[in-house]
Design goal:
180 residues
């Protein structure tokens, strides 16, 4: 019997980053370096347009049905409502909704998206995200917990954050890969 250690490599490297300003879509393209997992950090994202959503696109795919995801959303209004927690699924989306800003454009989103599937294989990429928005003086902030997959298998060459309307006016995106 021969013992061996698990192949554990906790080393992560920066793939890219970008300011979130002046555009409704921000894309980070990857080099030829391999990664089994991808981590996207969203810091201080702010929209020009209130009540807009942030979507995730992998490899710029935007055909209806390219993403299937399940979300749990906790709204945080100033008074209790039975509709504060909602659960939904979507199998016809052109991007995976990973967050929503409040009814005030001063709302800010922070969060993370973890993608498994990597840059070197043809597996179906799956993702998990958790983001939270401040109310920014609007009617409600929201906590989004989302799990899903892209329905088309291909090595990942880019990731994009896309707004449902308007442009970003502040914030940053940071993308990391592991040592695939």
């Amino acid at each position: 019997l021969k013992w061996s250690s698990a192949n554990v490599n906790p080393y992560w490297y920066a793939i890219g980053n970008s300011a979130l300003s002046g555009s409704g879509t921000v894309t980070i393209s990857f080099s030829t370096r391999r990664a089994n997992n991808i981590l996207i950090l969203i810091k201080g994202a702010s929209p020009v347009t209130a009540s807009t959503t942030i979507g995730l696109r992998i490899n710029a795919r935007s055909t209806a049905g390219d993403y299937e995801f399940y979300s749990n959303v906790l709204s945080m209004p100033t008074t209790y409502a039975t509709t504060q927690l909602t659960s939904s699924n979507n199998a016809t989306a052109t991007s995976a909704t990973v967050g929503k800003f409040s009814s005030n454009a001063a709302s800010v989103i922070n969060g993370a998206i973890w993608i498994s599937g990597g840059t070197a294989n043809l597996s179906i990429p799956s993702f998990q995200s958790h983001t939270a928005s401040t109310d920014g003086g609007g009617n409600t902030g929201e906590l989004h917990l989302v799990s899903g997959l892209q329905t088309v298998g291909a090595p990942i060459t880019s990731v994009s954050l896309v707004l449902s309307s308007g442009n970003f006016d502040a914030g940053n995106i940071y993308v990391y890969g592991d040592q695939g």
